[in-house]
Amino acid sequence: MEMESSTGSPVADFYRGRSVFITGSTGFMGKVLVEKLLRSCPDVSALYLLLRPRRGHDVRHRLEDMLNTPIFDEVRRSRPDALRKVVAIPGDMTFPDLGISASDRELLTDEVSVVFHSAATVKFDEALKLSIEMNMLGTQRMLQLAKQMRKLEAFVHVSTAYCNCDRSEVREVVYPTPTDPDKLVQCVEWMDADMADHMTSKILGNRPNTYTLTKAMAETSVAKEVGSLPVAIVRPSIVTAALREPLPGWVDNMNGPTGLFVGAGKGVLRTLYCHRDMVADLIPVDICINLLIAVAWKTATATRNQHGKSSGEEQQVVVYNCVSGAQNPIKWGSLQDMALIHLRRNPYSGVLWYPGGSFKESRAYHDLCSLAFHTIPAYIMDAAARLSGKKPIMVKIQQRLSKAVQCLQFFTTGEWQFSDDNVQALMGEMTPADRKVFDFDVREVDWDAYLNTYVLGIRKFVLKDDPSTFPEARAHLRKMYFVHRLSQFLTVTITWRLLLARSQVARRLWSVLVGILARAVGLVSGVARAVLPSIGSIAAPVSAH
Which positions fall inside the Thioester reductase (TE) domain (predicted)? Predict the structure, then answer.
């Protein structure tokens, strides 16, 4: 991968000499954003990353760990000095004033021109109080800091396309929430954690989880507090492995479809409650990051071109739905069919069963299959592990898998119509060079090829399977295929024998089937006896010639 030059790129030129402040930089999207800015905007002045100190590791060690991941290898090789531009700022989104020291705050307010705020708790089942603290109050604290930044030209807030999942059609606007964010904060503030958890279902209303609720509330806060700030909101849908950058297939977590692919590839996920004919709105992480970088450029240049806005006049928040369904949809059924092909062609090491199963559109049928193919086998395998003196783990794995799948069911059984007019308009304003370097045209994604890349990326970056293990993995998969077919044959045979032993109807049906088969065999034998002599008499003269 070659290092791109900013020459002829208005987007890259915009970042020349400017400092950027990023929250959520150690997350999946954050790492890709940092790497892309260093590689494709080589003249950026500095990248300030808000990092939370952890027990036993200060922020410098966390920064070193992040920069030592494989996605920074190209930057380290081609432009090693660029890594010195990355500066850790100790802080915490849940602390007053973000926990940033006075000296660091002064540095940020004096130097920063662009802010990317992507820090959030993305756990669907996060406790309400923590979700409010991170996603709502953290965003409000970021806005207060941004108002003090003297050079600020763009503040990009990363939301989610599903923050308005209570609507079937989602346009690129900030929708009002049923509850005022400030009142919700005041209401939850005096509750202890247990009371807040008890009240969560009532507060959620028709939303599936605290994540979508608090992200919607955060958008409302942004629109309310924007004032004269140059703010934009980017809403990604389901963020998945990299399409091309920084490495094809790169992913570092088990969230969303990644966890499903691991479960299916290992053979432990056999059923999922999902509507096959609905759109699975996946968005590769590099497409999302390219859009973020371009949105900051657009926000800054648009504000600059609006005479009088810089004097304190209130700004309008522009929203960008970063989605694939509007331009290049893929349905869950197609996703399943293609993914299973690639999981079998590129098997993971140590699969527990042959990859298979299917999506179920009936919840009752899914629950029955889950009991038969997930729960019961897990208990049987754990019992066998105990008898052999090994540690039983399958029940715990299945319980975690079941919890993760239940969190996703709202999104695998629903469909939303997302508009992306602002995204398409932005693409039209970019030069050909910028559209190549900061490519976010989802129409170019070949989903079948991408899913193959995705499966290989999981194998390499998540499961850490070395390429040298392919022959052994494929040989093991062939064995598991025969075990799978044998188990199916035995299951059918045993079930039928039990039916014959206990059901008069089954015995009668079996007698009828045997009789039909016997008559069919007799008929074929009679035809053969009649036809073979004729064939012999014809063949004899021919052979004589």
Answer: 22-291
